[in-house]
Amino acid sequence: MSSKKQLSQVTDFDLRLLRLFKVVAESGSFSAAESALGITRSAVSLQMSDLEKRLGMRLCQRGRAGFALTDEGREVLRAGEVLLTAVENFRGEVNQINNQLRGELNIGIVNNLVTQPHMSITRALKTLRERSDEIRINISMSTPGEIERGLFDGRLHVGVVPLNTPLSGLDYSQLYEERSSLYCSHEHPFFHADSEPDNEQLGAVDAVVPSYRMTAEAIGLHQLLNCTASASDREGIAFLILTGSYIGCLPDHYAANWVAKGQMKALCPQRLFFDSRLAIVTRKGRRPNLLLEAFLSTLQPAS
């Protein structure tokens, strides 16, 4: 792009495009940014072109040779990060001055926690909403890794993830524990067996393993199994179990509905289980945010 032009005014549309550009740059390609942004690759490409037209410069090279930021793109990325941080800090500080709960709270939660009986998150959101009608709550259901990335890049204010391997740069606070057991569906041969399967029998059938990080206890249980399939989240594991072709581990609260309907049962529940800690996670060194602090103070760890 040879023509250079002055940017007369920074609009909300420009800020949205800069946030998208930041995610694309951190992801390393348009295709890798798809899942992080929740939009198609063509939509990412279109919005990147809009930003380049607005700024009058090429920000990145893309094509068969791969993805790379131009020199100008690296400078815009640096300046954009400064601007986006300043905007968020300004909004938070104004709300602090007003001492009013207003604005957006972006929360990332791992899938299938809504059936957790403690309902700590649900109660906290209810209390927060009752305190102000000027709050916009945005919840995204994602994998633990995506939530942690969202906290690092500022797209999320707070997340709820399994407390497996804490990452430096993030603060984790345990919320509650949940138990997971090994399950099969009513179409699996184990379901109607007269006795519980032993370890040799368990290792002789197909099983599904999570593709996200696990605790040492969970890894030990899965090492007993013949894991021939994987799933990125709990819903994917449930899908495969319900085919009748696989056994796999699910949180007991999540599997309870299928158990009640006679569509699943736990295998060897007295010995084949593991407990996972669920944690509230935020970014270390975050600036004061009245809305976020109100949400965190409302959460009560379950006993």
From TrEMBL:
GO MF term (any one): transcription cis-regulatory region binding
Annotated keywords: DNA-binding, Transcription, Transcription regulation
PROSITE patterns for this protein: HTH_LYSR
Pfam families: HTH_1, LysR_substrate
Stretches assigned to the HTH lysR-type domain: 13-70
Family of the protein in this entry: Belongs to the LysR transcriptional regulatory family.
UniProt protein name: LysR family transcriptional regulator
Biological source species: Oceanimonas pelagia
